[in-house]
Target: Methylenetetrahydrofolate--tRNA-(uracil-5-)-methyltransferase TrmFO
Amino acid sequence: MLNKATVIGAGLAGSEAAWQLAQRGIAVDLYEMKPVRMTPAHHSNDFAELCCSNSLRGAEICTAPGLLKEELRRAGSLLIACADATRVEAGGALAVDRVAFAAMVTEKIKSHPNITVHAGEITHIPDEGHVIVATGPLTSDALFDDIKNKIGQHEYLHFYDAAAPIVSFDSVDMESAYFASRYDKGTADYINCPMDREQYDAFWQALCDAEQAPVHGFEDKKVFEGCMPVEVMGRRGHDTLLYGPLKPVGLRDPRTGKDPYAVVQLRRDNAAGSLYNLVGFQTHLKFPEQKRVFSMIPALRNAEFVRYGVMHRNTFMDSPRLLDRHFRLREQPRIRFAGQMTGVEGYIESAASGFEAGLNLARELKGLPLIEFPDTTAIGALGLYVSNEANVKFQPMNINFGIIQPLGYRVKGKREKNTQIALRALEQLDELLDTVKEDVL
Ligand SMILES: Cc1cc2nc3c(=O)[nH]c(=O)nc-3n(C[C@H](O)[C@H](O)[C@H](O)COP(=O)(O)OP(=O)(O)OC[C@H]3O[C@@H](n4cnc5c(N)ncnc54)[C@H](O)[C@@H]3O)c2cc1C
Model:
């Protein structure tokens, strides 16, 4: 009993949590309902599936996602190791070959001697023992109802999250597109699909008028600002997209020597370079409408859509009233939650919460004091954000420097300030990991 734990869900958070437990000698029963039952957004049988973008966002430590990844890397994260190993070129971002990434995570988990994988849906949180629930924003209905019963009068919250389409490289008209990175920084990894004013106007009008797929319950129109459907953004005004995903600045067209009026960027989706996704084009238009409207982008006039964008309801808990900083249910601390359902938003943030929950559950089971990641680190800031009772209107949060403790002195320039915050975080993290290294091995 003592050295045993259950993890439910082998997504980003559950895979990381199971790994951290197993690496510390804890026997883990990992339950994943795929392939017996699939969520509406998951397609592959593998664990840690990235269901939309293949980007884990900024790689440099002067960006908050870059800092979070570097902290996880230093702390021994499985997911970051797999991401580094399956990286595809994407300018300043860490993007991965999604199939190779998920396959590698799955192989590592399945071959770990301390992890037993069980395929099938869990409908109830076990009545005994230590559990990490990491079933994600699309937790199956039966388990969802059981969680509701367990957390009592507290309400679940929700918003809608959309995915972007993927096209085959062979079908992109490269006569109408060019490789470049913004401001020619780094290598030219993105395919840029330019539009002139006339083409953009026609595209924008068609996008705004296009027919959306019916999404159950979407009447309240709660979308996450950071992952807003492209048509919702377009309807905010003619120029909105020109300051968002279609921003042309710094993407000089080599044929004209000028920045185009608008540019759609395509990012490599697999190592072979045979698939590309439309950056920032998460959408819930009907599939034929996606084909019709996105084919108005000249370079995509004959594009083959190997996957269309979809939108789903994302559910999360009112964590500030339910969880402590270690993702434990305050009223039943043997139960932890991790991942997107706790209100951390994004792949890496979900992995980070799984990392914290797994690592500290292992320590708890071994009778060791829990590691308190400070609010100067990105890992610590996330746990503190979701458990902060002062957060009255709780909303999911990507990692950002706004939730990390400020420096306490003035530094000129945002990049320099963020770099100093990151260096302080990494120094403190290294010290912390050093003090506990004997315990955790
Ligand atoms: C449509 C959509 C698009 C998104 N796009 C992005 C994006 O581009 N970038 C980004 O960073 N984030 C995106 N997200 C958010 C994304 O869900 C999270 O970043 C991440 O996948 C959350 O990790 P998780 O481990 O919490 O959940 P998941 O990765 O969803 O993992 C949960 C796992 O639990 C399993 N499961 C569910 N119920 C049960 C059950 N009852 N029993 C057993 N197993 C169960 C599921 O099959 C799944 O494998 C998107 C989400 C959605 C829904």
In short: The longest helix spans residues 414-440.
